[in-house]
Specification:
Radius of gyration: 15 Å
Number of helices: 7
Strand content: 5-15%
Number of domains: 1
Order of helices and strands: EEHHHHHEHH
Number of strands: 3
C-alpha cells in the first residue's frame, strides 16, 4: 500500500496520506454525503476526481461539491467512519471525538489549495495542469504527472494511484 498519495494540480502536490486514507475519504462521501444530497453531479468528485482528473470547466463545481460534502460531514460523528469499508486499513483515527469533517479537515483544505494552484498556474502560464489524485513521492509522482489525459479518459479499472 502506498503511503504517499496526494492532490496534484498546477505545479504543486498536496500530500494526503495512505491509499486507504484517501479511499476512506471517498467512502465517506459516497456513503455519508451523497444519500443526503441527491440530484447533484457527484460524479465530478466520485469519478472525475477519484479516478481521472477534474477538467478546467468543472473546477468551480468540484469546489462547490467539496464545500457541500464538508458541510454534511460536519454533522456526522467521527465514529461513523469505523463502519466504512476502508477504515481497518486506514491510519485515520475513527474512534476519536469530533466530526467526520474534523477528521478530513486537511483533505478539504488541501483540495482548496489544489484548485487555487490549478487556476493560478493557468493564469500565469496559459496552461491548465489538471487537478487529480496521484502519488506524491518520486518516482511515481513523475509517472503520474506525465501520464496523458487520454490514459485517464479511457481508464476502466481502479485509479492509477491505487496499488494493484
Amino acid at each position: 500500500m502506498n503511503d504517499n498519495i496526494g492532490f496534484m494540480a498546477g505545479a504543486d502536490v498536496y500530500r494526503l496520506g495512505l491509499e486507504a486514507d484517501v479511499a476512506l475519504f471517498f467512502d465517506a462521501i459516497n456513503l455519508l454525503v451523497i444519500p443526503k444530497c441527491p440530484g447533484r453531479r457527484w460524479s465530478v468528485i466520485t469519478d472525475r476526481l477519484y479516478k481521472r482528473y477534474v477538467a478546467e470547466q468543472d473546477l468551480p463545481e468540484a469546489q462547490e461539491l467539496m464545500n457541500v460534502a464538508q458541510d454534511v460531514l460536519m454533522r456526522e460523528p467521527a465514529v461513523q467512519l469505523a463502519r466504512l469499508q476502508n477504515a481497518a486499513m486506514s491510519s485515520i483515527d475513527t474512534t476519536g471525538p469530533g466530526t467526520v469533517a474534523d477528521v478530513f479537515r486537511s483533505f478539504f483544505e488541501k483540495f482548496g489549495h489544489a484548485v487555487d494552484s490549478a487556476q493560478s498556474f493557468n493564469a500565469r502560464w496559459g496552461e491548465y495542469v489538471p487537478l487529480k489524485i496521484g502519488h506524491a513521492g518520486v518516482p511515481d509522482f513523475i509517472t503520474d504527472r506525465d501520464r496523458p489525459e487520454e490514459s485517464y479518459d479511457t481508464l476502466t479499472g481502479p485509479p492509477f494511484w491505487v496499488s494493484n
